[in-house]
Amino acid sequence: MNSRDEVVLALTDDLEPDDVTTGGQFNPRTRRMALAGHFFFRTMAIVIYFFCTWFTSSFVVPFVLVLISLSLDFWFVKNISGRILVGLRWSSYTDDEGRTCWRFDSRPALPEPSDDVTLSRRELSLRAAQTQAARLFWIGLVSAPLVWGVFLLASIFSLHLRWALVCAIALSMSAANVYGFIRCRLSGSNQNAATTLLSGLHTKVARQMFTDFWSNLTKRPENTSGLASNPPGSVNASNANATFGV
């Protein structure tokens, strides 16, 4: 089964009135709620997995509760916290030909400060808060599959195969989000790098063509030998006379 990427670099959101004045970025209250949800559901799944045996000896009830927490975490991170905290969103679907198609949405980044671009104090504080929120997002995103991987190994070595199944499901769901967001993050940077590379390559080729054309135009023909000025396939008269003994 082949797969192809469908990169969309413009992520549109339903912005609140306060967000319009910040260039499409979410306000601090929205980011705090997204961070809380980003860590709440995955922490809830781990807590249920750890302490469920204190309250019940059944396997079905903790299994269902963990799956519900994992499903809510997967959906929230994929559609809410990733969009708000880092401006990324990914999705995949299968087309009519049976190929898996990936769609990556990315919000344009804030302008970088330079000699020509001066940021206000509010914009600098917004950038700092956004950087911190993005760092927490990636920490929470990557740490979840690591934790469930440790739980999976512990369940296998202790021969608790039923709980190993729970850990395997949790690991696959959290790893799928990590894979999707990493591909979403790299697709935009790779596209920008490819655009820059092609632009530089086109400039270099055009400059080389112009240099070769100008050097051929200004180069003076050298008539140091008779053969050099003759057309291809012609015979020089002196060579012909020497051949026939004239």
UniProtKB/TrEMBL annotation:
| Membrane-spanning ranges | 57-77, 136-157, 163-182
Mode of membrane association: Multi-pass membrane protein
- Record localization: Membrane
Pfam families, alphabetically?
DUF846
Q: Name one GO biological process term.
A: vesicle-mediated transport
Q: Which UniProt keywords apply?
A: Membrane, Transmembrane, Transmembrane helix
Q: Which domain of life is it from?
A: Eukaryota
Q: This protein is called what?
A: Golgi apparatus membrane protein TVP23 homolog
By sequence similarity, the record places it as follows:
Belongs to the TVP23 family.
Location of region: Disordered: 223-246
Q: Is Transmembrane helix set as a keyword in this record?
A: yes
Q: Which InterPro entries match?
A: TVP23-like (IPR008564)
Q: Name one GO cellular component term.
A: Golgi membrane
